[in-house]
Amino acid sequence: MEDNKNRLAFGKKNYVLMLVGIALLAIGFFIMTLDDELYGLGFLGITLGPLVVLAGFAVEFFAIMAKDKSEE
């Protein structure tokens, strides 16, 4: 019973994927700041940045839902 107290909620694979997702989110927001168009209405601020952020959220969702095989 005490063995269950020391276990983390996710496995190592999940935490690595979460860090990758956070990095993608940060990169996406940084890309949006690089846009030189007025109010960020250029390609970087309207298209590329939000797509990278969306990919980061997708990775985060997968990281939470994925089952780590080492926990079985």
How is the secondary structure organized here?
Elements: H1 2-5, H2 12-33, H3 43-65
Helix pairs in contact: 2-3
Short description:
The protein has 72 residues and is mostly helical. Helix content is 68%, strand content 0%. It is built from 3 helices and no strands.
Using brief descriptors, characterize the structure shown.
72 residues; mainly alpha; transmembrane helix
Structure description:
- By secondary structure, this protein is an all-alpha fold.
- It has one domain.
- 68% of the residues lie in helices and 0% in strands.
- It contains 3 helices and no strands.
- It has helices at residues 2-5, 12-33, 43-65.
- It holds the Pfam family DUF3098.
- Keywords: Membrane, Transmembrane, Transmembrane helix.
- This is DUF3098 domain-containing protein.
- It comes from Pontibacter actiniarum.
- The chain crosses the membrane at residues 15-34, 40-66.
